[in-house]
Request: fold
Amino acid sequence: MDFVESMKKKAKSYGNSLVLPEGTEDRTVVAAATIAKEKLARSVILLGKKDDILSVAKKNCVELGDGIEFINPADSEWKDSFANEYYELRKAKGMTPEEAAQGMNDPLKFGAMMVRMGKADAMVSGALSSTADLLRAGLTIIKTAPGTKTASSCFVIDTHDPKWGQDGLLVFSDCAVVPNPTGEQLADIAISAAQSCRDLLGAEPAVAMLSFSSKGSGGKIDDVLKVQEGVRIAKEKAPDLLLDGELQADAALIPEVTERKAPGSPITGKVNTLIFPDLNAGNIGYKLVQRLAHADAYGPILQGFAKPISDLSRGCSAEDIVVTSAITLVQAGKK
Reply:
């Protein structure tokens, strides 16, 4: 079973609910019909006026039947309670009750509040809205997970070669969100990526924090010291996590090289999660593997939030939305 099929199977068995804020967007409506038909979610909630959503469905020749719900934020029974919660979250930043009420007219913020308040288990957006808007809604309403201050991302890389990672699958992080993380942020990213490994690969993580240096070979320069600090903090915050660094990529992945460059490393021959020192390295790294090794790259998958939300490319297809939704529903966990 490939990664996508495994995510769909898990999502179906978990029975979580999904909110799609961009409820009148064509690809989103088509994807919602597929998610409901394949029973990947217990319910799929489309935000917007029901008549408008049904008109989009008719135009795209899809039926929205069992498993689909329609909520218009403007007249929802939850609007006032959501606005009150939003005000409490933001009043210290100067938000007024009137501004909070106006904010709940925004489907993205309303959808995030649904997830926060347990009215939906997961949210997927981005076919129309920007990544910045999604992150802003997530950070101000859903917040980051306990113990972390850093929202980040990962890719699941399917190398199609079982000698790498977990049956050919690896987690690469962060490749899309934090441009130049501090040591503390790297630690948060490593711990979040480890959880992504558990959730998505079904495996205990073995985490390598990467650098051009292995165990101090690069000298005492800032780029090396930052990763070393990240390793130290990650081990303090998650002492049971199997993690090592700083390591060059070959020292992380090739056991005989690990033994030469980091003898006795606890992750020798086990690595399934790679943490890049910055966004330059992460983005370049995953794209090189994807193109040169003909690997499949799934993501970016957001991580580090208290509850799962996911971003889409504005060039995404309906099938991309289905796959991202399945992954996000799996992140919500088994009920």
